[in-house]
# Entry
Amino acid sequence: MSSDNANLWMCLYFDKLPLEIFTRGETLSNHDPLKKSLPNKIKSRENRGPEHTGKSIVVLQKQRVFRLNQAALDIGIKPGNSMDTAYTLSDRVISFERNEDKEISTLAHLAQWAYQFTPNVSIKAPDSLLLDITGCLNLFKGLQPLILRVEQGLRQLGYQAVISTNRTPLAALLVARAHAPDGSINQIPVRYLQTDEKIITSLHQMGIHNVEDLLRLPESGLTRRFGVYFADYLQRLVGSKPDPQKLINPSVNFFHDITFLSDVSNLDSLTFPINRLLGELAEFLTSRQLQVNHFTWHLSHRNHNNKSFSIHLANPENNPRVFRTLTQLRLDQINDVKEIDNIALAVSQFFPAKAVNGSLFQGAGYQELALPSNTDKENQLLNMIHARLGPGYCFGLSQSNDHRPEKAWQTVSASTNDKKHPPTERDWLLKPDETPARPAFLLPTPKALNVADNIPCLAGKLELIKGPERIDYGWWDQPINKPLTRDYYIARQKDGSLYWIFQHIAMGQWYLHGIFS
# Structure
């Protein structure tokens, strides 16, 4: 290894990625914590990943086997075989057409996942990631603990990678793709070099079969024979020339999916994949110190229309148990999905996580968050209403920027983040000199009142105890011949009831508009 000041790069080579984007759902089921509560007989059937279920799985490209699992290898299927050949060996072979777009998008998601280890992550399509780990080894207490951490994290996501390290990015990539056991590039065959096939053929004809033999040749001779680009590649490979990498930006976006090897017709069977995807979302949010108040599920099938539904929360949070409960509520309402072969979870809007205040003299378990507050209970209720009825049926009220009483209110989001609490009727009546009094109840349409001796009547004459308050507003959206000017009064009946009435100045007519509680 190089000196302490030298750069160190880690390569994650996903050689099984074309297969794993289809089979990771089977692998993930082995690690689902919900299975701890299942009977042993069910566990024995479920705890079998794609390598151990006996299912032969192949990925096709141009009608030929491109990738296959161990079960397919065991029955004699080989890369390059046609499906006719595969079916002669077994009639239970499960096949998928290669999806290169999904491979690239999955690699991009894995790059965002790797951002938790180092901010310097580069994508090498179609199957590799490069991580500059020079400055993070102390954080993870050395190279081996870091490698174990990466392996464990990938295993939980349902992926496997060949992991290698070297002092240059190209060398780390070469070691990983060649599966070099000692981590050195010297004995790697030249066929693994990222260069033109004609150059590889020429090197073989010259008797050069590994990188060590190649590097013994004079650089000037290599440049004359194979061109400046090949010489530049070798210089970056060995570190004699800088090799800056294009690093990813930490995009805040989440999209993970699970493909099923066989169609799912019973939505109750989605418990495990939903639990797994929500766990991945929780890990993503925790690593980035984020929360969400909205996420969307997509249920799809190759022969049917896709089905999507969203979960809206009263407040942003990161609690997979809450996410799971609300998802199940919405899932119970779905009865128009016949079968699915893929489930996906998507989130596009995020909020910074709020810090939890604890006590300096108490343990970590003694936190303010330990006991649910009134706000937490309110949020739980709103979440349940959102999930059962949808966001359009749950809202709050707020003041609107309009002096006309019938237009002075507006609906707002039920989220406690967005709620604006208007002054209560009690506040107005206790401070009559500071704020105009408003009743809690307004009639949908003002009711015309009778008049006796120029005094408005409602089951008897009303006593005007406060007013007038003139409201002359909104002339721009009213007919010119119908002026809006009103004089409002608080009136009292003989039994003590309080009413909000007004006189329409242009018409001289009295109306009842509101009732005080």
Observations:
- The radius of gyration is 35 Å.
- The CA atoms of residues 60 and 98 lie 6 Å apart.
- DSSP finds 15 helices and 21 strands in the chain.
- The chain has a mean pLDDT of 81.
